[in-house]
Structures are given as structure tokens and as C-alpha cells.
Amino acid sequence: MPHRRTTFSRFIIEDQRRRGGSDTELTALLNDVQTACKFIATAVARGSLKQPYTPIGVETVAAPGVNVHGEMQKPLDLIANEIFLRNCEFGGQVCGMASEEMEEPYVIPAQFPRGRYLLVFDPLDGSSNLDVNVTVGTIFSILRAPEGVTEPTVEDFLQPGTQQVAAGFALYGPVDMIITTFGEGVHGFTLDREVGAYTLTHPNMRIPEKACEFAINASNERFWEPPVRRYVEECIEGKTGPRGQDFNMRWVASLVAEVYRILIRGGLFMYPRDTRPSCKPGRLRLLYEANPIAMVVEQAGGAASTGRQRILDIKPESLHQRVPLILGSKAEVERLDRYHAAYDRGEDLKFEAPLFGTRSVFITPVSATQD
Ligand SMILES: O=P(O)(O)OC[C@H]1O[C@](O)(COP(=O)(O)O)[C@@H](O)[C@@H]1O
Ligand SMILES: [Mg+2]
Ligand SMILES: [Mg+2]
């Protein structure tokens, strides 16, 4: 058991030793990632105050526009993206990076040595929350570049989540943290601002098995598939329904904050497949949101699924592919998987009818409670 005052830098070295090896490239890369997260934490914490300094290499940041997903960027989305690129390109550990904010992969420029890793990231997750001062974060995933590749193309990044070497996310909230896994458990580090170091505060995090909270954007109810309607309706029925217990509902609109809550308190998060043509495969991005988060969740004893397939088994088809994402306490995710399977077999049709406006799970007409 590592000492509780272990810093992130020390932990990654000792963790590799414990596992009988030492990958100095990976150690250096993870160190660059944590440095980038510290810069972003500092930039986010300035809020509306003018940024007091510019992190090295981040002198020129493009003006915000609409990103490849059709979403309006915030200045901090681009600042965070630049911070990640500049902090992780020079050390010789990676040969390419891919980000939510860049249409194409970034190949490490010729002036720097190229390494054997690929770094994939969502530089600022939940950035629509910035102006209301709610927790945001950074999500990262580390993959091995295919043998012999030094100038990676899109194809080289299209690896299933099971191939991730390490993954995690930083939280920029009341407390700044990094939650990470290298494939053997999940560990949480709190940024000690007096020391300037992420310090191990949450070793071996485990998602509680018992769930009494679920999170979904209820404004999309009219687009949900029947298995999701069924799950939510049963939760809302509470003690008197088939679940025999009351549930609370949560929605932060910041994946990192939802996942951290689930790591601490258990529960379920869903951004499911829905029937909107624009959103059909799901809302969240496979490579830099779903995969790294799924690795963390599984390593903490939970599960992550589309409802029909384990997230980590999906073979990506494109860099910016979106997927349905259901994650959290294992038994809850398995329940959703069962509901999807039953529905796909043609059962559970009572949840088929559009509920919105007639029989919403949130506004149950009196007549519906009497039958
Ligand atoms: O605004 P919605 O539809 O509720 O979506 C919220 C989801 O979108 C995200 O904000 C997407 O992340 P970005 O801020 O990186 O685009 C998730 O963090 C969150 O789960
Ligand atoms: Mg995101
Ligand atoms: Mg983002």
C-alpha cells in the first residue's frame, strides 16, 4: 500500500517498480500530463480575471469558433488544448495527439523527438459550465502507437479502449484532482497548492455497489429508447415500484464531475442512444471521453456500456465518433444491458409508446396511476 503522502510523480515511478518494470517514457509522459493539468487548473481558477501569465508555448491561441462537433468553443477550450499540446509535445514520448478540439491528429513537429505513445484528450470537459462556476475537467487516454509508426494518421488512433495503457481525468472544482488508472486499480490525487504537487489522497478507489442516484439529461426524455424509459420510470416509482427503494436524480452536465460522484457514492450515469437523427449514436465521444472514463470505471469495479456492448470493446471507426454511454455501479449497468436485450428481443413493449406529453415518466397522469 503506497504511503498516503505520496506525490503523483513518485507514485507513477513506484507503481511501475511494483509491477516489475520501469517505462521511463510513460513516466515522463504522465508527468507532462500532470503539469498540463496544473496549468489548466490555474487558468480555469482565474475565472473572469485576466490571465496573469502565459504558460510556455501558449503565446498564440486561435480565436474560438465552432469545433468539429458543431459546438461553440470557449476561449478556455482552446487555451487548455494549447497547454496540452505544448506540454506534451517536446519530451520525446509521443508521436501524435488527438483532441476533441482538433479536426485532425497532431503529429509531433520534426524539431522534437518522436516517441512510441499516442495521447488523446478532451482538454476541457463540461466547458458549458464555465460561466456558472461548476466543476470542469480534462480527460486523457494513452495508447501505444502501432509498431514502426512515427507519423501517426487517423487510422493509428482507432484502437479499442482495451488497448489503453493509462487513462484518467483531472477535476477543476472546489478541489483540483487527478483520478487515474494504469490498468491496476484507480487512484485519486489532490492538488496541494502549498506544495504545488498532486498528492495521493484516494488510493484504490472502488465504486460502491449500492446505487441510489441516477443521472440523465431529462430534457431529452422524448427521444429516449424504451429500455432507458423503463429504467428511469422504475427509479422514479421509488419504494412502491419494482426497485423497492427511492432514488435521487442528478445532472451536472459535466461528465468528469458525474463520474467522480459515482466513484465516491455509486449510481448510474446515462447519455444513451436516442432517436434524434443528429444524435443517434450518442452524445459523448468514444476516443477522448467514453474510452478513458470506461477504463477508470471498470478499474474501480464498475461497468461501462452502450446498453448493447461494452464500451472498451468497440472498434472505433472514426476519430470523433460518438457513442451512447451508460456507466456506474456494475449491477445498475447490467440491469440496463438486460433491459436493452429484452427490448431487442421484442419484449417490454409497454415502454414503446412516446411518453412525452401523454405519459411522461416525470408527469404521470392520475389515470395512469389507477390501472
Ligand atoms: O449539455 P448536455 O446535453 O446535458 O451534455 C452534457 C454532456 O456534455 C459534455 O459537456 C461534453 O463535454 P464538452 O464540454 O467537452 O463538450 C459532458 O461533459 C456532459 O456529460
Ligand atoms: Mg467533454
Ligand atoms: Mg471538451
Short description:
The protein is of the alpha+beta class and 371 residues long. The chain binds 1,6-di-O-phosphono-beta-D-fructofuranose (FBP) and magnesium ion (2 copies).
Describe the structure.
The protein is α+β, with helices and mostly antiparallel strands. It folds into 2 domains: 8-202, Fructose-1,6-Bisphosphatase, Chain A, domain 1, CATH 3.30.540.10; 213-370, D-Maltodextrin-Binding Protein, domain 2. It is built from 9 helices and 15 strands. Strands 2-1-3-4-5-6-7-8 form an 8-stranded mixed β-sheet, with helices on both faces. Strands 10-9-11-15-13 form a 5-stranded mixed β-sheet, with helices on both faces. It has a two-stranded antiparallel sheet with strand order 12-14. Strand 1 (94-99) and strand 2 (106-107) form a beta hairpin. The protein starts with 7 loop residues before the first helix and ends with a helix. 46% of the residues are buried. 1,6-di-O-phosphono-beta-D-fructofuranose binds next to strand 3. The site of 1,6-di-O-phosphono-beta-D-fructofuranose has 13 residues, from strand 3.
